[in-house]
Amino acid sequence: xxxxxxxxxxxxxxxxxxxxxxxxxxxxxxxxxxxxxxxxxxxxxxxxxxxxxxxxxxxxxxxxxxxxxxxxxxxxxxxxxxxxxxxxxxxxxxxxxxxxxxxxxxxxxxxxxxxxxxxxxxxxxxxxxxxxxxxxxxxxxxxxxxxxxxxxxxxxxxxxxxxxxxxxxxxxxxxxxxxxxxxxxxxxxxxxxxxxxxxxxxxxxxxxxxxxxxxxxxxxxxxxxxxxxxxxxxxxxxxxxxxxxxxxxxxxxxxxxxxx
Length: 260
Hints:
The chain is α/β, with parallel strands linked by helices. The protein is 40% helix and 25% strand. Strands 6-7-8-3-9-10 form a six-stranded mixed beta sheet, with helices on both faces. The chain has a four-stranded antiparallel beta sheet with strand order 2-1-4-5. Strand 9 and strand 10 form a beta hairpin. The protein starts with 10 loop residues before the first strand and ends with a helix.
């Protein structure tokens, strides 16, 4: 299991009854959960169960119809913010300063070097001086084991290396929370561990991470909390040690049986 975390750590993410529909299709139904600082939370469940949509709601990449999301003290409220577009846009910008996002496809800029990819957001969004941004990038590249790749272009890297650069890029904004949407699903099996090992190291350092993943062994061995989604609903949630070992719900048991 992940190392023991303090159960009285402050809440950093509070998701309250978020629902979302597209036309007549209900994608999320009253999803509610909380994440404490320094926890690693995994969202698991069959394809199409709403996991990625939940994650995208956390970063305001998706607009939800009802409910609210609070991260690092910043609240996005579905009902209130529909009426105030400009106010919402400002809130979203503030929220995103606290949340880093790592996607399934690495989304690196192909025409920029690794170093330029990592320093771009701190320089343009935060106004960090170039020397400072580059010094931070060097620290982060060492952290993800790619110090020697700073001047390479993404096309010169393996998928696993590109994803580690994407993690370093997300960390460059010094977020409170890192969100990962299936970070290893586009990788060759041989490269999956190099990305999961970076996530393990960040967990050891106390980074708050929320991960949508099909890597059940990683979920079982590393995460603190697991949420099992099916049909847009959290069917079961709890400490990972309990959920992976002795799931209460039949749907959870049947899902895990296929993977573990």
